[in-house]
Amino acid sequence: MYQVGNLVKELSDKHGRMRESLMPILQEIVQKHNYLTDEAMVEVARELDISAAEVYGTASFYTFLDTQEKGKYVIRICKTITCSMKGKSDIIHTLEDMLKIKVGETTTDKQFSLIETNCIGWCHKAPAILINEMPYTELTPEKVSTIIKDYMQK
Amino acid sequence: MINLLINDQKVSVQAGTTVLAAAKKLKINIPTLCNHDDLCVAGNCRVCIVEQKGARTLIASCATPASEGMDIHTNTLKVRNARKHIVELLLSEHRADCTKCYKNQNCELQSLANEFAFGDHIFLDLVEDHKYNIDRSSPSFIKDDSKCIRCQRCVRTCSELQYISAIAVSNKGAQMKISSFNNRPMSHVVCTNCGQCVNRCPTGALVEKTYIDQVWDAIYDPDKHVVVQTAPAVRVALGEDLGYDPGERVTGKMVNALRQLGFSSVLDTDFTADLTIMEEGTELLVRLKKALVDGDKKVSLPMFTSCSPGWIKFIEHKYPEFLPNLSTCKSPQQMFGVLAKTYYAKKRNIDPSKIVSVSIMPCTAKKFEADRPEMRASGFKDVDFVLTTRELAVMIKQAGLDFRNLEEAKYDSIMGDSTGAGVIFGATGGVMEAALRTAYEIVTGREVPFGNLNITPVRGMDGVKEATVKIEGCVDAWKFLEGAELKVAIAHGLVNANKIMKLVREGKAPYHFIEIMACPGGCIGGGGQPIPTNMQIRKNRMKAIYAEDEHMVLRKSHENPEVIAIYKEFLEKPNSHKSHELLHTHYIERDNY
Amino acid sequence: MENKGLNKVDLIFEKIEPKEVLIKAFKMSSAEIIQNILDSGLKGRGGAGFPTGLKWKYTAAEKSSEKYIVCNADEGEPGTFKDREILERVSDKVHGGMAIAGKAIGAKMGIVYLRGEYRYMLLKLMIELDSFHKMIKEIGYDFNIEYRMGSGAYICGEESALFESIEGKRGEPRNKPPYPTVSGVFDKPTSINNVETLVTAMMIIQHGAKNFTQYGTKDSRGSKVFSVSGDTPTPGIFELELGMSVQQFVNVFGDGDTKAVQVGGASGFCVPRKKFAETIIGFEGVPTGGSMMLFNSSRSMYNVLHNYLDFFTEESCGQCTPCRVGCQQLLKGVEKVKKGEAKPTYLNELMKLADSMKIAAKCGLGQSVGNAFKSIVGNFREEIIY
Ligand SMILES: Cc1cc2nc3c(=O)[nH]c(=O)nc-3n(C[C@H](O)[C@H](O)[C@H](O)COP(=O)(O)O)c2cc1C
Ligand code: SF4
Ligand code: SF4
Ligand code: SF4
Ligand code: SF4
Ligand code: FES
Ligand code: FES
Fold first, then answer.
1. pTM
2. Ligand 3 environment, Cβ below 6 A
3. Residue B153 sits at the chain C interface (C-beta within 8 Å)
């Protein structure tokens, strides 16, 4: 759990306090902290003068605006058809083995979260994953373990 | 005008009219679910689909404006098949245990199922795949997601009419549902318990929390003396649940029915409505005096009425800095409750611990109010059980009473006397009108200068109403008010309350006294009133309320003989020490989420 | 039916001097630009295929001091990645196309709605947008573009859901009418166009409508970018003239064992081998926003269908009954049939359900779930059952 502190206020100054400011604000909180805490959502609701339930309702519509705790690196594995055909399961197994978590979980040191996602637009280079914003494509178990080792070092 | 064909019949409608409304004009019935007259169009249930010649798909008649030359058919095989599928789909996600369901026989989904999807179900049961939650945390209502058809009526109600959005749509796809903030219990979010969502829910997904069985138990407990009070708005609406048209007054029959149900004493909330006027009117005059004569800067003006518990909770959550502006008067229900276990108990020589105090209310928030810790000034829970108008209708049906053929009866005494002023509490503007009838007379010694005491500027369905009363010819004690213009405002529906509160917060509200009711139309449109409730029905009930007032001999609160008596025998005078102890209270700040 | 065969073209990714094209466009009147686009026969490249010229004409006709041109870069359709490639390689043409569209409809504001999955390129795009704004200023024209990000919701590619999302709300499609040309983002007249449509429009202004109409067929003018994936030795992005048959496509891109091609993504149609020759890729046959997924005989079409249905069950916005519940029923239905827990004849009920979804759902998502369902179950029934 993180403390939002002044972040929401700063973001509201930056993006405005209109309803249309909601997405950019939530997105930037998530970019920074990887998920939205209740506290953060309540703050946003206060700044934008909308109800907290609406903030939650909107956030929960978007898969990238997580309201459950997530690690520092969120690994999203494409599960759509081409990636499935091209070895998505092997990638998942490798990741699960390396990180000792199942899909949907976060490592106890809060470094990595593993989730499945729908087509991320790299089907010609399947299988593909996103780690936070960065796409990694044409993965093999070897390739993905090198990538994750790099992240572990960071 | 726009001309179109529906089922080969010609119809002309104003631009902007929906196909659904155009069909209604021809008396062609198209089923609907997500549509509600009080709310903006959603177009999401798709039950109202019809065939438009030349269109690629069927169209949702509730969401499609009529256009010139349209050729619509509402009952083709294509339409029927799709509609049947839709009802079947809704049922497949739905825990359809109708015989156990509170909405059995009064459920829009059930009616549709009866029309379209009887017999074996086509599709697989999906209920087991959903982890549906049942939230019983609120003392006012139950939210059972397994009965929700995702029509979003509740969400639109809470946002469009009440400006709260305690509930919103969350998640998407198969997981889409109606949620409070991060699925917290309804008792722990900004919900006002107004029940407007409950009143508009087409199914059993939102229903009042019922206390019918507890009340029956009390009635049949020989050790208990069960008193019942009935709110003014109940008598003009109860009939709807018993086969009457909206707006028919059933006061006398209702009183008789309550007696037949076995209540020991059938009394009237109107009595404490009149008492409220004495207390609140005096409080207002005192505040005005402090502000105008004593120059006391700390006096909180404008003063707000405090009889609507939904409104109280709204201000606690949203405008807590203005809590001092609330009248300290408890609501008539709670004044009644505390007096039942003190004054009434004493006068009737009954041990107050043996009294069970029941109230029949048009309101679900009253259930919450009765549970508040502030409401135990008698040393007991002042009001034990609150039933809605709908629950009373259920009890009457359970008891097998032939309501239509009941004799008219009169309220018991004591605490059964009322005036027209107490009655009009049930409609928006009513508290204001009642207060003005009394306050003006206290201050000037004369009746309010409106024909037949009808203060029409404060009446009607406008969301925000204003009026100015010039005070002239004051009696000596109130000379300082001579020539003053008393500015008042009235709002009903919390979306309108919010408009006024914004002005107040910005310092732009020039009023002395503001009446606010949480529900559209005031209590006549309360969350506990018969379903359906819509603008036309509210108007009919409102008319009935004013008719009830006009039929009363006494129409001013200060003329209520029992009110005069209670001051003489028990309370001494308005705002006395005893009054404050029993009839007044203060509220608390709450989180805005 | 016309058949132009498979011809590779290089117009979309062709490097150009955008400034010259824009100067040329800004000298034209709004009506002239629209006429050019009408003459070209360009249809939207986002999937629905509405004539772009008409869309601009309707939006231009609206009287409003505030109008918007929205570039749909939400590209969520499984198997589509051409808009990403276009933005990576020729964003100047996307921005340029928006300015031209703006001129045509009378909009000073453009918004690009970029899917969250593509955030990694936002920084680069911002830099390119800066130079674009500078250039526009140099020309002395007033047009401003903003980027708004999606956050992982396929339905936000649907135009009205996209507007809702820009407005900070859940991406729930709106009722239509009103159409975007009358009331779009912020309830203002809006022309929403796909990334590729805008680039193509710029190209048409550059080379003239005639040049464009020499490509493609009567119903499907020009060339378009295809996203090729699945069982193919050459996955990737290819700009091809419209009007080829699936067979001709498979001849070039197949791995020699192609048993089916899914044209148009999960919301498109599955073409089985026996129909390759007779099926034209284009609006006269199977329309596509560019997604071409090939499956060889090692693939289970049950898995393919299951994957698509799973996708829709998650990605439906959930507001309307036919789609929210229909998707769950189709998914659970095929699972049960596969496991032998439901009779194979239950598929017939599901086929009827798919028909109802097509005509009763609120938006294009629910309306097109039946495409894949019916074409896969219809052509590969045995694979679904056994
Ligand atoms: C579920 C759904 C998803 C869509 N996704 C996209 C998309 O990602 N990109 C796109 O350009 N159009 C998408 N569309 C089509 C848009 O609604 C709209 O028709 C298109 O952006 C118009 O641009 P065009 O005429 O240039 O194709 C989608 C439609 C639906 C129903
Ligand atoms: S909500 Fe309606 S359909 Fe559902 S169980 Fe209750 S009565 Fe039956
Ligand atoms: S009871 Fe009133 S405040 Fe609470 S959710 Fe329902 S409509 Fe909203
Ligand atoms: S709770 Fe009732 S009103 Fe709300 S969406 Fe569900 S069925 Fe509709
Ligand atoms: S068809 Fe699906 S995506 Fe479209 S509005 Fe209905 S539920 Fe939402
Ligand atoms: S299927 Fe995985 S990126 Fe498209
Ligand atoms: S009543 Fe028209 S879509 Fe629900």
1. 0.97
2. B 157-158, 162, 164, 166-167, 191-197
3. no
